[in-house]
Design goal:
Elements (H helix, E strand, L loop, with lengths): L5 E12 L2 E12 L3 E5 L6 H8 L7 E6 L2 E2 L5 H6 L2 E4 L11 H6 L4 H4 L4 H15 L14 H14 L4 E5 L7 H14 L5 E5 L3 H7 L2 E6 L2 E7 L6 H9 L17 E9 L6 E6 L3 E5 L6 H8 L6 E6 L2 E2 L4 H7 L1 E4 L3 H4 L7 H4 L9 E2 L2 E2 L1 H14 L16 H13 L5 E5 L7 H16 L3 E6 L2 H7 L2 E6 L2 E7 L6 H8 L4
Parallel strand pairs: 3-8, 3-9, 6-7, 7-8, 13-20, 13-21, 16-19, 19-20
Antiparallel strand pairs: 1-2, 1-4, 4-5, 9-10, 11-12, 11-14, 14-15, 17-18, 21-22
Helix pairs in contact: 5-6, 6-7
The structure holds adenosine-5'-triphosphate and magnesium ion.
The site of magnesium ion (MG) has 4 residues, from helix 1.
């Protein structure tokens, strides 16, 4: 095979961290001008592998060939000069600047050789225009959606003549309608002589977008295959976790009856006269596209945002202040878990019990044995990939950090648990384990409200489904009888 057919050749690549071999002797090729997907469970080693390609981490051993030549980037800047750009999950765009200013921000002279600044700007703008004409150069970035901000970053990489763009879970924070547009842009990159390396836990995306897929498990390379040779989702899941998972809603034996939460005529900057009732012990799900008002509703109930109207919990009117809401027995697992919910310098053991110290203390002292037991129990239940409960949260993989925050809130012992996008960034196997825990909590009498933009999640576990569109509650359904995904999608996209 002609070596230049492969843009990258990865040979026996190894990365060790203290006590863990994150990437274990991985070898595979990436063909030029393809979309090459990388999948695997949380902690499989995907991000670590990518970071060795981008110069963020030095490898322990092994080789990387870029365009047939030995490649050892010493920094991300170094990798960028060699044509490898990364679309980080935390976007690099600056909201207060215009699109044009962002495009030229941090622009290195080296990438453009002898071009003058005005030429550079016009080249950037014409690249952006060829990718997404609806984005105007003079527009403020703060007025763009997350997907469009990502497109600005892609344009920046293309204009800088990157021929490899790496995307680590780029769609985690964007809505389905916008994902379609982003995908068009990604598909178009093949013609621009760009190879895309794409990491995602949403398997449907792999089939929609990928030419090739590499599966990793426990740091090892399992297989690299053309996507067209994989029969379906379940074959891919089996490659990833070594077993098949099955998901379907099972109606509960006895309907919940007592009303625990009553929301009456709730309105604020984003919500429009929302009223509903939640029964004690049920799993309720709010579904809607991004911007429909899910997070805003959660924040209002939690007392973070102001509102008009009334919220009654266990017969008493809730005061709009988080301290009082928590004291009444309500917890919220926020959408931005990594930044809002995790003490990254604490260990797993230190993080899990923080919202419910009483449960692990006796006479005012922390009982170490109980603390250990609780941490081990949740590591096991949620399948957190770690070699020890003493690992600092900062050193866990992205999905495993999410699981720690979730563990913390599940342990909090609230009567009403609100979860905003509970399984975002979490792999398929662990998702079903989290669903299992949610079901178990509801059987123990806890009430759960899920806010999600993933329809299968809502349809799999929720007893009642609430559909939001543009800040209004459009419909309430009982799962198991009158529910179809076509019908739901029709309503949440504004249909009557
Ligand atoms: N800086 C670090 N120090 C120590 N261990 C680390 C560090 N970064 C990653 N690890 C470990 O390496 C392993 C692989 O992590 P990595 O982030 O590559 O997984 P991933 O496949 O990207 O998972 P996810 O889907 O959850 O993002 C994990 O066991 C993780 O705990
Ligand atoms: Mg990762």
């Amino acid at each position: 095979m002609n070596s230049t057919e492969n843009v990258l050749e990865i040979r026996d690549l190894v990365k060790d961290f203290p006590g863990v071999r994150a990437v274990n002797n991985v070898s595979f090729d990436i063909k030029r001008n393809t979309v090459h997907c990388l999948v695997g469970e949380n902690g499989a080693g995907k991000s670590t592998l990518i970071k060795m390609l981008t110069g963020a981490y030095m490898r322990t051993s092994g080789r990387i060939l870029l365009n047939g030549e030995e490649f050892t980037p010493h920094s991300t800047r170094d990798a960028k000069k060699n044509g490898i750009s990364t679309l980080f999950q935390e976007l690099n765009v600056v909201d207060q600047l215009t699109v044009e200013e962002n495009l030229t921000l941090g622009m290195e002279d080296t990438t453009f050789g002898f071009l003058r600044k005005t030429d550079k700007i016009s080249r950037m703008v014409s690249v952006l225009n060829s990718i997404e004409p609806s984005i105007k150069p003079r527009q403020l970035v703060s007025s763009l959606s997350v997907a469009k901000k990502q497109i600005v970053e892609i344009a920046k990489a293309v204009a800088a003549e990157s021929n490899i763009i790496i995307m680590d879970e780029p769609t985690a924070a964007i809505s389905e309608s916008e994902i379609a547009r982003l995908f068009d842009v990604i598909r178009g990159l093949r013609e621009k002589n760009v190879t895309v390396i794409y990491i995602s836990h949403r398997l449907d995306e792999i089939f929609e977008l990928g030419d090739y897929v590499t599966v990793m498990r426990d740091g090892k390379h399992i297989e690299t295959k053309p996507v067209s040779e994989i029969r379906d989702r379940s074959e891919l899941i089996k490659m990833m976790i070594g077993k098949t998972v099955f998901e379907q809603y099972t109606p509960r034996e006895k309907d919940c009856e007592d009303i625990i939460l009553k929301v009456k005529n709730l309105s604020n900057h984003r919500l429009n006269d929302v009223s509903f009732e939640i029964r004690a012990g049920e799993i309720a799900g709010f579904y809607g596209l991004v911007g429909a008002g899910k997070t805003e509703l959660a924040r209002a109930i939690y007392g973070v945002d102001e509102y008009e109207g009334e919220i009654i919990f266990k017969g008493k009117k809730l005061q709009p202040s988080p301290g009082k809401v928590i004291a009444a027995g309500i917890t919220l697992v926020p959408e931005e878990r990594r930044s809002q919910g995790l003490f990254t310098i604490l260990t797993i053991r230190g993080n899990v019990p923080v919202m419910n110290m009483a449960k692990i203390s006796r006479n005012g002292f922390i009982n170490n044995a109980t603390e250990n037991k609780v941490a081990l129990e949740y590591v096991d239940k949620l399948n957190i990939a770690t070699n020890s409960i003493e690992k600092e949260a900062a050193k866990l993989s992205g999905g495993n950090q999410q699981k720690v925050v979730l563990a913390k809130c599940l342990f909090a012992d609230a009567d009403l648990l609100m979860l905003d996008e509970p399984t975002r960034g979490i792999d398929v196997g662990s998702k079903s384990e989290i669903y299992g825990i949610i079901r178990q909590l509801s059987q123990e009498g806890k009430t759960i409200i899920i806010f999600s933009s993933e329809l299968p999640e809502i349809m799999n576990i929720c007893d009642s489904i609430y559909l939001l569109y543009d800040g209004s509650l459009k419909s309430t359904l009982r799962n198991g009888c009158d529910v179809s995904s076509e019908n739901i999608l029709h309503i949440v996209t504004g249909g009557e």
